[in-house]
Amino acid sequence: MPSAFQQSVIDEFRANAGRVGGPFAGSDLLLLTTTGARTGRPHTTPLGHVRDGERLLVVGSNLGAPHHPDWYHNLLAHPSVHVELGDQEFETIAVPAEGSRRDELFARVVAEAPGYAEYQAATDRTLPVVVLELPGPRAPAPAVTSLADKLTEVHTWLRGQLAQVHAETEAHFAARAVALRGTGTPPPPGLGLQIRQRCLAFCQALEFHHTAEDGHMFPAMEGYHPHLRPVFERLREEHRSIAAVQSALAALLAGVAVAEPDDFRAELARMTEQLTAHLAYEEAEILPLLADVPWPPTP
């Protein structure tokens, strides 16, 4: 739970479209809601930020204390976060910067908010800099009025995250190739946090989606459509297979730093094909049954 002071800041922020008085008057604040690493419950924290183009930078200063703040540990465990910025709200994936990129972004923060340099001087730990990408301009999302629309929305997000994993691994291989030619800086060793956070967010969302289907949606639908029991059984079996693919995907990405690019691409493509084939089969069999089910559910 936020402290009484933090809660008063949160309440004032939400009541005044992001404007807060007192010691924070004129400050650039946002509200970051993370999922508790241990509890799984949402936690909202007011944080200062620096805007850097189409991204927001927040620093895990904890006022120079020797330990990272709780919200930072939360986002490492659950990368998908909710951001409130003025009167705008959006979901994004929180990605801590690494290596030289972290140093560059921290210098950018200090140039605008010099107090962070004092916090860094007060502790031996390296203050993490977390990147929150702003939502770009996009066409208005289709209206979600049925459970079929909601399922389509979730599947579209999952496909988008897979596409981002592909793009980020290609960027990693490109940076590695440039470094091997001696004309650039090699990417950080091990699994880059950008790729790790994206993969973790995808896997957690897919697991939550499948758990909800197996525990609630499919049993209810079987009651109305008993002749489709073989379809639901196949989907449940695919969910078990997909769980193994998720683990294999995480292991594959963990070895990206030393992987042979063509072999890596082939394995990633194979896993992606299996994941997207499952989504396509589910859509073909289930969407027609959900078209008349209202969303959000009516009381």
UniProtKB/TrEMBL annotation:
InterPro entries: F420H2_quin_Rdtase (IPR004378), Hemerythrin-like (IPR012312), Split_barrel_FMN-bd (IPR012349). Residues 148-290 form the Hemerythrin-like domain. It catalyses: oxidized coenzyme F420-(gamma-L-Glu)(n) + a quinol + H(+) = reduced coenzyme F420-(gamma-L-Glu)(n) + a quinone. One of its GO terms (cellular component) is plasma membrane. GO terms for molecular function: coenzyme F420 binding; oxidoreductase activity. It comes from the Bacteria. NCBIfam families: hi_GC_TIGR00026. Belongs to the F420H(2)-dependent quinone reductase family. This is Nitroreductase family deazaflavin-dependent oxidoreductase. It comes from Streptomyces cavourensis.
